[in-house]
Amino acid sequence: MHVVIIGAGEVGTAIAANLSSDHEVVVVDIDPDRADEIKYEFDVLTLAGDGTSSSMLEMADVPDSDMVIACTDDDRTNLVACGTAKTLGDAFTIARTKSTKYLYTWERDQTAFGVDFMVCSDLLTAENIVRVIGLPAAIDVDPFAGGLVQMAEFYVAEESPVAGQTVAEADRFESLTFAGLFRDGEMVLPRGDTVIEACDRAVVIGSPESVQAFAMDIAPETTPDDADEIVIVGGSDVGYHSARLLEERDLRPRLIEQDGERARWLAEQLPNTVVMEHDATDTEFLSREHVDEADIVVAALDSDEKNLLVSVLAKRLGVGRVIALVDSSDYVTVFEEIGIDVAINPRSVTAEEITRFSYESVAENIAVLENDQAEVLELELGEGCALVDRPISELVQDIDAKFVIGAITRNRKLVTPRGDTVLQPGDHIIVFVESAFVSELAAMA
After folding, report:
1. Which end of the chain is less crowded, N or C, counting CB atoms within 10 A of the terminal residue's CB?
2. Which range marks the domain in which residue 182 is found?
3. Residue 141 shares a structural domain with residue 109
4. Count of structural domains within the chain
5. 117-120/149-155 β-pairing
6. Based on the domain organization, do 354 and 338 belong to the same domain?
7. By the 8 A CB rule, do 124 and 346 touch?
8. Residue 248: which pLDDT band, with cuts at 50, 70 and 90?
9. pLDDT grade, residue 223 (50/70/90)?
10. pLDDT per residue as tens digits for the range 293-308
């Protein structure tokens, strides 16, 4: 597949990294230095120039391309680039936007702007935040198989009851599979006798009920029965959509916004949210409003520095769990190392969604983990494919790659995979796999 990516920022770079090994990729960026950097970083062709220019897009061979992905940091640039691409050929166009106003227009008429698929960073990020709130001990959550299956990643703290246990001891749930561990930057495929160590990141796949039960095991003190005390700091678009989505789940969050006009608008739009107009860095105000008693604080201000400050203040006040919006991926590690529970990077969330859609011809769903070390795929098995009519234990022996089949859905029912489970045509399998092997495994389906 010939893919043209317009914009070589964090989003464009992540997409290029995921697609370059299996597709012919051209990256266009306005900055010549950035174009040169990415050319040597990945096996892609790069062009320096304006991605909205028809002459530049012709140089990138857009008229004969299969897909054009416009993912610069400017919404209008992305929309114009997609519109221009449509005048040159019939490539499938994907546009990244931050604002939902363009998304809502496109949803009314999906021929709008010359865009075939639109990804809204702010809305995706809010959805990610709400999923994590729904499973408070997790640092990443993704649904698969129409919600029948859930993948969750957990940080194992030193005081966690499962730290020091073997996988066999920790896995007490019928419909749960330990898919992988990340330890000191390395991926480990767990066996029954593998010891779960403090500071590991554990990836589990199973029914939502079993994943929730495991969350209670791994961190009982941070997994309240109902996370009903939620404070959102910052009435940004991400903060607003997070509150709106929480209201849809019959929760009543509180939201702190310093700008008076914005606070009034938020109060009008969010009838079940208590909106407080104040500076969220005022510790006396936070104490007076009992923010220290919150189950979860979400830092959704307009800069990483402000979110870092608010997150640290919330932790000092004794808030059980802090989720922070981190605009720069370079800062994610900083937030995590100082003890912030979950750091969500909108650019990574957006890149994952676009990559997922780009893989849709071979995988129905995808989640990218730990800086693209591993991915979780949902594959439908066809008649006569290399994976069917064979027990899983035999597949694991014969296929030279790191992968774990975490769950199977058959006729819309969940099947927990075991070594003697025989895969059948029509099965949907959710697989944890090293990133380098994704395309090869998908081809077997």
Report:
1. N
2. 126-222
3. no
4. 4
5. unpaired
6. no
7. yes
8. very high
9. low
10. 899 999 999 999 999 9
Residue 398: give its domain's CATH number. 3.30.70.1450
> Which spans in 177-321 are helix H?
208-218, 237-248, 260-269, 283-288, 304-317
Angle between helices 10-19 and 32-41 (to 10 degrees): 30
- The two tokens of residue 283 are 């510790």
Residue 121 included in any domain: no
Alpha-carbon distances, residue 17 vs 90, 371, 392 (angstroms)? 24, 11, 30
Which candidate, 347, 356, 352, places its Cα nearest to that of 325? Answer: 347
Distance, CA of 181 to CA of 202 (rounded, Å): 5
Q: Which residue has the tokens 């912030």?
A: 340
- What tokens appear for 54 in the block? 């028809």
Q: Which residues contact 371 (CB under 8 A, 6 or more apart)?
A: none
Please report, for residues 149, 215, 362, 379, 409, the alpha-carbon distance to residue 412 in angstroms, rounded to integers and kept in the order given: 11, 25, 20, 14, 6
pLDDT for the residue numbered 106: 94
Residue type, 218: I
- Assign residue 113 a region: left if phi > 0, alpha if psi is -120 to 50, beta otherwise? left
Shared domain check, 247 and 316: yes
Percent of the chain with pLDDT over 90: 71
Q: How confident is the model at residue 355 (pLDDT cuts 50, 70, 90)?
A: confident
- Which of 251, 216, 260, 215 lies closest to 232, judged by CA? 251
